[in-house]
Amino acid sequence: MANPNNIYEEIGIQPIINAIGSVTMLGGSTPIPEALEAMEQAGSSYIPLIELEEKAGSAIADMLNVPAAYITSGAGSALTLAAAAVMAGDDDKLIEQLPNTNGMKNEILIQKRQRYWYDRCLETSGATLVDFGTNDKTSPEDLENAITEKTAAVHFFMVEQELDPNALSLEDTIEIAHNHNIPVLVDAAGQVYPLELMGKAIRMGADFQCVAAKYIGAPQSTGLALGTEKMIRQISKQSFVGYEGRRIRGIGRPHKVDRQEMIGALTAVKYWMQTNHEERLDSIETRSQTIVNLLQGIKGLNATLINNSIGHQPFGVHITIDESIIGMTLQDIVDKLKDNNPPIWTRVSNKNSYDLNSDYSDNIEIHMFGLNSGEEVIVGEKLVELLG
User: Rounded to an integer, what distance in angstroms lies between the CA atom of residue 211 and that of residue 197?
Assistant: First the structure.
């Protein structure tokens, strides 16, 4: 059998061992075999993409128990299209005017505590982000006082495994915003397990929730926009198929999704909703514990199992060191692993990799998401070689 790495090596790129997890810069995901097979079948025929978006979105909405859904080119694309949708609505003149927002409600409110790396995706629509609350706490009054005649939406960043007691809750956000007839947008890109998180924000009353489909075995370049029928209709008008099919020049033309990717995303949702997650989590926990076991007894190093089953990257290994004993920094370890053959990619973790205000902390996290079966042993043994 041919070496699948040759496709990269023949152009001078060496494949790596991905111990970081599902990160865009390393490829994001490996589509499940079921998705790849469906994508190959989908590629053999042409199909009107407006109809495919409608039918695939309807099937996904039914599976996730939400009013409507739309396949986008990643969760970031869903955020951009949703921001455009709340500003321009169904007005074709406004749709074609974006990203120029003159004369529109163009401000999206976001808690100062929830500013994060990907809120930039909202701004690329032409919207302006306006902070409310402080770095320490957000109160209901902070949101009430921030709402003006320019407010187009309120944005909420949802991470169930790291609920922030000092942030304004999603429940309160929805209640206050809707009292002012303002839609609520929710970024829940990684909230794919437990299954009830898929669409939870919509069932709570939010108008929009995005999901990164790469986390459930779809191509990394796909995402899901979930929402009310009104919101998804307005997103569809902003999309690349709206640009071509309706001949209305919205900002979504570069956000293309091919028919194979749409079918891959649909297939991945079906698989994710039917898979045995107890077995999945059991395997990930066992593989994580393998690395923990290999690293026990190394003086100056502490390796513990990350006790988390929520979201897109359950379990994993948390590593801290005493630099005076190890004789290296965490960044030294990361660099030496990259010098391995094949290179092993890890990174020094920050407290919250989405948070713009987080300082880098004193740990490395190793996740199983991007590791092929057996590579956890390679990673563990290489760390033992470096540090033991």
Answer: 10
Total domains in the fold of the chain: 2
Nearest to 187 by CA among 223, 137, 151: 223
Name the domain boundary from 254, 274, 294.
274
- Pairwise pLDDT comparison (139 vs 355), residue with the higher score: 139
Q: Are 172 and 297 members of one domain?
A: no
Asked, for residue 1, whether it belongs to a domain, the answer is no
Torsion of CA 31, 32, 33, 34, to 10 degrees: -110
Q: Residue 85: what residue type?
A: A
Residue 304: in which H helix or E strand, if any? strand 301-305
Q: Give the global pTM.
A: 0.94
Average pLDDT over residues 206-231: 97
Burial class (CB in 10 A: 0-12, 13-18, 19+), 373: exposed
Q: Residue 301 maps to which CATH number?
A: 3.90.1150.180
Q: Could you tell me if 219 and 261 lie in one domain?
A: yes
Share of the chain above pLDDT 70, in %: 96
pLDDT reported for residue 356: 47
Residues 270, 281, single domain; the answer is: no
CA-nearest of 130, 125, 115, 132 to 86 is 125
The parent domain of residue 298 ranges over 6-27+276-387
Closest CA to 239 of 229, 226, 252: 252
Residue type, 24: T
The token pair at 231 is: 């919101």
